[in-house]
Design a protein that fits this description.
CATH class of the largest domain: Mainly Alpha
CATH architecture of the largest domain: Up-down Bundle
Membrane topology: Multi-pass membrane protein
Protein name: Transmembrane efflux protein
Pfam families: MFS_1
CATH topology of the largest domain: Growth Hormone, Chain: A
Shape: globular
GO molecular function: transmembrane transporter activity
InterPro entries: EmrB-like, MFS, MFS_dom, MFS_trans_sf
Strand content: under 5%
Number of strands: 0
CATH superfamily of the largest domain: MFS general substrate transporter like domains
Radius of gyration: 21 Å
Length: 489
């Protein structure tokens, strides 16, 4: 049984290590969007390259995050966490030194691999190290401090872009890793799950899942060309997705056991997740561009402008979860997406000469209120809709689904909105496409609300409740449970 107390020196070192590690990944999930216009200008990149700068990271992270947890269980959580931190830092260094867009995209994909190793590992280290009496408080501090890191990410990113340059958005990870990795080696106890020694890793499932996402993403981003290659790629992506389902159905130890979807509530809440996080992914990708390209703000102003959404999450997510415990998840999961849709429609007022107090802030406050309303109940419903022994797996699948939804949205939304390759260099063209994109995002959120209203029911008494009560990340729901891992045991 883990016996480290939170108040002990070792407990504080463990908490610091895990916060540093998870903050690296959280920062990169929010800060890069602010840097995109400057990256595009400096590297003379088209819009597709900017989409890939975001999506290459999300692709490998979403595709491998379940497998990353499994590697930690088998080979040692501290070992895999440290490998992830070092890997992430090395890839970040490559991003910061990238001479062109192609190298940057490849380095971002490598960053996602590191993120898939360290993201589940940071929570697993807390759960494997702290005494049960202290674990809940440690998880709360970890998620709270991590949320603060996510909140300051756009601000720090904007400051770096306007100051020393966008490359420092990535280079900042190197000193964080140099601090984090030695502390982990010295102060964090090693742990592993003996049950993870049985069975094989579902490498084929992970490869097919990531390949399906990659091919579909490529087809969506390059669809403007209308070439035969795009059609073939799209069909290959669908085929890879079908093969993924077939492999997961037949394997004795699958990465994503399809039987877990026998729970109608679990399936329904994941459909809601796909709608909600697709809209969020599209919004945060385009909003930072809109504020800089169309409104004319600096990167620092644009990054600071987006802070209210994360701040509201940090301040009120725990209270939202408590309210959902009393009234059930159906109302919050119905009302929350509608509020987010209203916030995105209010963004239609954000154009040339927009005022922050009159135009931008009201939209972000409504959007943030909707996010607060839905995120905590969504996590609770995911955990409560499956057996307690599968809670960690369910959370991992839900987290991966959210990231995949954001990935597809960033690929598809510019296409659906009629955004050309040079649109981000033309304020007028981008503003028109942004308006259409926000309308599409609002529509997707309305669909998510309708799905929640029609399918989500009250949770059974005594079901598993979230440990991450405070949550500040806006691109994916929090990971939960002892076993966010790549196979079911």
């Amino acid at each position: 049984m883990p016996d480290v107390r939170l108040a002990s020196p070792q407990g504080k070192w463990i908490l610091l290590t895990t916060v540093l590690g998870s903050s690296m990944a959280l920062l990169d999930s929010t800060v890069v969007n602010v840097a995109l216009p400057r990256i595009g200008r400096d590297l003379d990149a088209e819009l597709a390259a900017l989409q890939w700068t975001v999506n290459a990271y999300m692709l490998t992270l979403a595709g491998l995050i379940l497998l990353g947890g499994s590697l930690g269980d088998r080979y040692g959580r501290r070992k895999v966490f440290v490998v992830g931190v070092v890997w992430f830092a090395a890839a970040s260094l490559l991003c910061g030194l990238a001479p062109n867009a192609g190298v940057l995209v490849a380095a971002r994909a490598l960053q996602g691999v590191g993120g898939a190793l360290l993201t589940p590992g940071s929570l697993a280290l807390i759960q494997a190290s702290f005494h049960p009496d202290d674990r809940g408080r440690a998880v709360g501090l970890w998620s709270g401090f991590g949320g603060i890191g996510a909140a300051v990410g756009p601000f720090v990113g904007g400051w770096l872009v306007d100051g020393p340059g966008w490359r420092w958005v990535f280079l900042l990870n190197v000193p964080l890793a140099l601090l984090c990795a030695p502390i982990a080696v010295r102060h964090v106890p090693e742990s592993a799950d003996g049950r993870a020694d049985h069975g094989r890793f579902d490498v084929l499932g992970a490869v097919l899942g990531a390949l399906a996402l990659a091919l579909v993403t490529y087809a969506l981003i390059e669809a403007r060309s209308g070439s035969l290659v795009v059609v073939v790629t799209a069909l290959a992506g669908v085929a890879a997705g079908v093969a993924f389902v077939a492999v997961e159905k037949r394997r004795p130890d699958p990465m994503m056991p399809l039987g877990i979807f026998a729970s109608r509530q679990f399936t329904a809440v994941n459909l809601v997740t796909l709608c909600v996080y697709a809209a969020f992914g599209g919004f945060f990708f385009l909003a930072a561009l809109q504020l800089q390209v169309v409104v004319g703000w600096s990167a620092l102003q644009a990054g600071t402008a987006l802070l209210p959404t994360t701040a509201l999450m940090l301040l009120f997510s725990a209270r939202s979860g408590a309210l959902a415990d009393r009234i059930g998840p159906r109302i919050p999961l119905t009302v929350g997406p509608l509020l987010c849709a209203a916030g995105m429609l209010l963004m239609l007022r954000v154009g040339p000469g927009a005022s922050y107090p009159a135009d931008v802030l009201p939209a972000l406050l409504v959007l943030g209120t909707g996010m607060v309303t839905l995120v905590a109940p969504l996590t609770a419903t995911v955990l409560g809709s499956v057996d307690a022994s599968r809670a960690g797996l369910a959370s991992g699948i839900n987290n991966a689904a959210a990231r995949a939804a954001g990935l597809i949205a960033v690929a598809a939304l510019p296409l659906v909105a009629g955004m050309g390759e040079e649109a981000y260099r033309s304020p007028g063209a981008f503003d028109d496409a942004f308006g259409r994109a926000m309308t599409v995002c609002a529509g997707v959120l309305v669909v998510g609300s309708a799905v929640a209203f029609a399918t989500v029911r009250s949770l059974p008494p005594g079901c598993r409740r979230p440990e991450c009560r405070t949550h500040g990340a806006v691109m994916a729901p929090p990971l939960e449970g002892e076993r966010t891992r790549g196979r079911l045991s």
